[in-house]
């Protein structure tokens, strides 16, 4: 993982751990591999019982660098915001509630999990089903 990725991850996890509405954080995709120096963006999966509040807090309270561009995509149970910072660093923050973890995993999400998945922090064992999904796919 690139040094700027580590800095963003550390700052974000430190900030997010103080937010009572965030129950868990995982890295998804190639950035979840510590050895991957090429990953272009960090992709976070956050579990929150207050999705809108979490998104607003990331945009208004989490200060890493100045944001150059922000886009938002609502996929129903999962809302994603993509932020490009002035340094060129890009991050994606997917925010879902615990119910999202219980529905069958969509192909696109499953493919991203297979590229990399690492639980960074969780209040309880939230991501177990994703781990089982990855294990099943590896056995196929």
Report on this model:
- By secondary structure, the chain is α+β, with helices and mostly antiparallel strands.
- Helices cover 32% and strands 31% of the residues.
- The protein contains four helices and six strands, in the order αββαβββαβα.
- The chain has helices at residues 3-16, 51-60, 107-115, 128-139; strands at 22-28, 41-48, 67-74, 78-85, 90-96, 117-122.
- Strands 3-4-5-2-1-6 form a six-stranded mixed β-sheet.
- A hairpin with a 4-residue loop joins strand 4 and strand 5 (90-96).
- The chain is globular.
- The mean pLDDT is 88.
What's this model, at a glance?
With 140 residues, the protein is α+β, with helices and mostly antiparallel strands.
Offer a few descriptive terms.
140 residues, alpha+beta, six-stranded mixed beta sheet
Find the structural class using helix and strand composition.
Answer: alpha+beta
Q: Regions with pLDDT < 50 over 5+ consecutive residues? A: none
Oligomer: single chain
Give the overall pLDDT as a whole number: 88
């Amino acid at each position: 993982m690139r040094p700027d990725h580590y800095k963003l991850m550390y700052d974000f996890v430190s900030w997010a751990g103080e937010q009572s509405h965030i129950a868990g954080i995982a890295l998804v995709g190639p950035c979840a591999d510590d050895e991957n120096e090429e990953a272009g963006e960090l992709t976070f999966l956050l579990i929150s019982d207050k999705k809108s509040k979490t998104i607003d807090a990331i945009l208004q309270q989490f200060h890493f660098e100045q944001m150059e561009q922000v886009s938002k995509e609502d996929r129903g149970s999962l809302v994603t915001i993509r932020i490009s910072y002035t340094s060129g660093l890009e991050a994606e923050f997917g925010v879902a509630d615990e119910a999202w973890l219980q529905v069958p995993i969509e192909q696109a999400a499953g493919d991203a999990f297979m590229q990399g998945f690492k639980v960074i922090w969780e209040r309880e064992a939230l991501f177990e089903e994703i781990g089982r999904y990855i294990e099943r796919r590896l056995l196929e």
